[in-house]
Amino acid sequence: MLEKPMMRFLLLAMPLLLAGCGSDESVENAANATAPVLRKGPMLGSVDLSQPVRASGAAPFWAIEIAPGSITYADRAGAGGTLTDFYPVSPRVDADRAVFPTQTPEGAPVTITLTRAACGEKDAPLTAEVKIGARTLTGCAWPKPAGENDAEPGNASAAPENGSAGG
After folding, report:
1. 63-106 pLDDT, tens per residue?
2. pTM strictly above 0.90
3. By C-alpha distance, which of 56, 74, 38, 40 is closest to 126?
């Protein structure tokens, strides 16, 4: 018998309990609130890795562009240089570095490592290391300038001056 009165009490009290769940904040205050900034992809320091990133080094000159769906490598060591498309992969990112484990079209292993550390005279925000098989290249990396639309990585006008050497 006690169960029915308790049930009736709960049913009557429910609307009162739910009425207390509303907010006192006015619609005007909600409209003035700052919208959260949404990030599209993984971040490495201040660099959004869902946007194109460039890296390059000297001795020999090399350059790479990493963008969603593509990784293009330019090797200027030989006469005229060559362009190679590596298989696009998503990076493994932690607080201080992003690693892109990929390969050449021939199947040689390639590991691209971007590290959050200032690099070069113009302070590019990232250092870069590219391992292609047994060969290791080092240099600097930075976000590709917005609106730039060139056909290959390493355009000398787009790269910040840096004193990095590669090998």
Report:
1. 999 999 999 999 886 666 789 999 999 999 998 999 999 999 99
2. no
3. 56
Strands (E), the chain: 43-44, 47-48, 53-57, 62-67, 70-75, 82-86, 92-93, 97-103, 109-119, 124-132, 135-143
Dig out the tokens for 86 from the structure: 């590596």
Residue 63 Cα to chain centre, angstroms: 18
47-48 and 97-103: which strand pairing? unpaired
Q: CA 24 to CA 27: how far, in whole Å?
A: 9
Q: Please enumerate in sequence order all residues whose Cβ is within 8 A of that of 165, keeping only pairs 6 or more positions apart, or say none.
A: 57, 58, 59, 138
Strand partners, 135: 132
CA 4 to chain CA centroid, nearest Å: 60
Specify the pLDDT at position 51. Answer: 94
Q: Is 16 helix (H, G, I), strand (E, B) or coil?
A: helix
* Pick from 157, 98, 108, 162: nearest CA to 129: 98
Q: Which amino acid is at 110?
A: V
Other CB atoms closer than 10 Å to residue 157's CB: what's the count? 7
